[in-house]
Amino acid sequence: MKDWINSMPECLALEMRGTIAVLTLNRPEKRNALSEGLVLGLQFFFDTIHSDVQAVVMKGSGSNFCAGLDLNELQETNITQSFHTSKIGQRLNDSIQFCSVPVISVLNGAVIGGGLELASATHVRVAEPSAYYALPEGTRGIFLGSGGSVRLPRIIGASAVIEMMLTGRVLDAQEAHHRMRLTHYLAEEGEGFDKAITLAEKITKNAPLANFAVIQAIPRIVEQDPAGGLFTEMLMVGIAQDDDEAKRRLADFLVRKQGKVTKA
After folding, report:
1. Active-site residue numbers?
2. CA atoms of 211 and 209, how far apart (whole Å)
3. Share of the chain above pLDDT 90, in %
4. Comparing 58-67, 137-146, 178-187, 245-254, which segment has the lowest mean pLDDT?
């Protein structure tokens, strides 16, 4: 475990809180913009995630989550290089969405462009009032390239994504949470991380295979036709309930239920 933690690049900070990995984007002077090194570092983390980790809390260093791609690295790129950059970003966010354990993001300050794409790949999103969201790609002559055009319309709707990209409109934390349902929780300023840790601690009390089934199966089921989705659901029921930990928890629940006093 210690060797794994020490193998992270300087642009990432990693610490363990029990079985929870706290992963920090560590480029505060660039508002944690996604450089090639940071993207590859994140990919390394999710490719090599330690078997003792049961949940990940991802946040940004300082007052921003992530201000998107480091545009200094996009200057004078050709179409082949653009394809390569997009493929790397898509692979990273696929690795997050289909991680072996749940990933919770803490959103504050800038959550822009590629940063919003990164957040949309996480399973639970906790925002603070300072968080603001934008997709300025249209105004900059570029396009979403890290899977955001697939994930974000499924979260906030295609019409909202189109409007944000065309106009560059900025969503504040309140509108994004209450109207768009982009985030799951809206914490007080400075309390997002504590809320995320509390949620992670709760999630890690679930049976690990149940968590795995939820984050692996549901995104795929919603893409299937109803018959295929129902069959996949049956498979996941069998897999989850055949787990020894699930059997133990069910037995414990039935014992507690038998001991309850009920009205006559």
Report:
1. 117, 137
2. 5
3. 75
4. 245-254
**In angstroms, rounded to a whole number, what is the distance separating the alpha carbons of residues 153 and 196?**
24
- Superfamily of domain 208-258, CATH level 4: Lyase 2-enoyl-coa Hydratase, Chain  A, domain 2 (1.10.12.10)
Amino acid identity, position 147: G
Tell me the average pLDDT across 34-59: 96
Q: Is the pLDDT at 78 greater than 80, yes or no?
A: no
